[in-house]
Design brief:
The chain has five helices and no strands. Helix content is 85%, strand content 0%. By secondary structure, it is an all-alpha fold. Helix 2 runs antiparallel to helix 3 and helix 4 packs antiparallel against helix 5. InterPro entries: Phage_holin_4_1. Belongs to the bacteriophage holin family. Cp-1 holin subfamily. It holds the Pfam family Phage_holin_4_1. Keywords: Membrane, Transmembrane, Transmembrane helix.
């Protein structure tokens, strides 16, 4: 029993070290966790779930389409990382990274809106207006 507890403790340390290293690398690559990145992460999850729901609603659920969507999300993450690294190289603080985050957040909002429409849902006017404002902010940052 003692041996099993020791083994679990060692595995726990390994898991904690791996999580800590992953967090440190991600923090460096993305420049820390800003509110924009957190919001974007949540929007990515909502978009994925609403896409699944819309596909199910339309009886067009496809693992191939879902896989492509996931690959695009990973591509988006790496573009944001590249933008942060360019910010570091050029000394532009987080200008490029935040611009990319706004751009992708606006796209995610539009995609969520489209998914809601595919399920026959309407969005309240103020929400549509907020998405439009975000989209306009994105256009200005480009």
């Amino acid at each position: 029993m003692k041996e099993m507890i020791k083994q679990l403790a060692q595995e726990s340390v390994t898991i904690k070290a791996t999580v800590a290293m992953t967090g440190a690398v991600a923090s460096y690559i993305f420049g820390g966790w800003s509110t924009g990145l957190i919001v974007l992460g949540i929007l990515v999850c909502i978009d994925f779930v609403t896409g699944l729901l819309a596909g199910f609603y339309e009886k067009k659920l496809s693992s191939q389409i879902g896989s492509k969507g996931i690959l695009r999300k990973f591509g988006m993450i790496w573009v944001i990382a590249m933008c942060h690294l360019l910010d570091v190289l050029l000394g532009t603080e987080d200008l490029l990274r935040d611009g990319a985050v706004f751009f992708y957040a606006a796209n995610e909002c539009l995609s969520i809106t489209e998914n809601a429409g595919r399920m026959g849902l309407q969005l309240p006017g103020p929400i549509e207006k907020a998405i439009q404002v975000l989209h306009e902010k994105t256009d200005k940052k480009q």
